[in-house]
Amino acid sequence: MTDRTQLAIGRQMFSVPRVTKRAVEVAVTTGLTGLAALVILGLNNVLTARSGFTGGLELWLQFIRRSDILGTIILTAIVCVAYLRWTRDNANTRR
Q1: Cα–Cα dist 19/87, whole Å
Q2: Quick one: DSSP state of residue 5?
Q3: What is the pLDDT of residues 28-39, one digit of tens each?
């Protein structure tokens, strides 16, 4: 069995090692989680009329720079990618 897989970025397909594909998946999941936190904190500041979206951006920057928050986001992304890989592998062996 080969240790390479296909990674689709846009319309391009790249042959990469499985570890690289998992690392890209973790990075994308981490980025999406950070973006979701930005939207939540930004809209919260807009809707409560505290200081507008720029105040929400500053609050998000303080929030996202904390090492415990960033570590939790990355750990959650790793667990998510590992679980999806495990369920995909188990689904293929049941057939």
Answers
A1: 17
A2: E
A3: 999 999 999 988
- Sorted by sequence, the CB contacts under 8 Å of residue 20 that are 6+ apart come out as 7
| CA pair distance 45, 55, nearest whole angstrom | 7
Cβ atoms within 10 Å, residue 84: 13
- 51 vs 54: CA distance, rounded Å: 7
Q: pLDDT tens digits for 41-67?
A: 888 888 886 677 788 888 889 999 999
Q: Write the DSSP string, 44-95.
A: HHHHTTSSHHHHHHHHHHHHHT-HHHHHHHHHHHHHHHHHHHHHHHHHHHH-
Q: How far is the C-alpha of 79 from the C-alpha of 62, rounded, in Å?
A: 25
Integer Cα distance of 21 and 25 in angstroms:
6
